[in-house]
Amino acid sequence: MLPFARVTIIGLGLIGSSIARAVRQAMPTVRLTGHDADAGVRETARALDLADDVTDTAGAAVIDADLVILCVPVGAIGAAARDIAADLPADAIVSDVGSCKAEVARALADALPGVAIVPAHPVAGTEQSGPRAGFATLFHHRWCILTPPEGASEAAVERVASFWRRLGADVELMTPEHHDRVLAVTSHLPHLIAYTIVGTASDLETVTQSEVIKYSAGGFRDFTRIAASDPTMWRDVFLTNREAVLEMLQRFSEDLTALQRAIRVGDGAQLFDQFTRTRAIRRSIVDQGQDDAAPDFGRVHE
Ligand code: NAP
Description:
6-phosphogluconate dehydrogenase C-terminal fold; globular; binds NADP nicotinamide-adenine-dinucleotide phosphate
């Protein structure tokens, strides 16, 4: 039996439209309703036939839903939840896909007192945004982390877990605080580093911008993919997961200083040890199916 019969997606960008496409494929009998604050996005969603109905207001979208998923930037989740509060059926479950969980849990609880809330974070995405960027297989073999609040109904958590498994994801449960620390180091810090290095390279005066771009295959271009990620989403992530990011950044700065010292004093053994350790980490990511083993990310070399 399907976990839900009537699913509403609020926010039809990369993640929302990917969920819509994946639901269409994996659970074609589910009645799908969508809404986005942006009229242009709603129009595109209708043209792409992402849902059975795309409504002009958030309230109309949730009126008969049994699952509502908020797929808006983290900073907008509280407002999106307030927009649906009055029209939400009493037995509906509300979830989200936000990249930070502790703040989001507070925002959802404030906006929707008494509602069954099961927050989720699919650890899957690309550097693109908007309804055209989504695709149905985005969640295949990716983790979806659920962070149910204390006292959440087990049945509600299991229904949301089953929903994500049907979209191809593997599901794990964590506390929101633990989630935020894990993601600070695996996702948020790497994005901050990429944003920094791309900014630094483009600000250099002794090396021209055209040279930075011309010789980018030396490594730089792999950072530019991450640094091209959505500015609104990432501004909100850093403002929301502030404490955990600052803590990881402090550790990173200390490790960077240690490497800086190794270079200065010519400690080749330390550099070699560190690089050997990091190469093994890449191997475990490939072994666990979280990336392709093809060299150079599978780019075609003619
Ligand atoms: P996106 O492509 O920019 O889509 C978000 C959509 O939500 C936009 O169309 C936006 O409209 C709309 N929106 C904003 N505020 C709204 C509101 N109050 N009510 C209704 N619609 C609203 O972003 P995304 O990449 O799908 O990210 C959505 C969520 O997924 C974020 O919380 C993010 O942290 C999380 N997430 C992202 C990734 C990733 O790799 N991208 C991965 C996992 C989780 P406007 O553009 O007009 O504001």
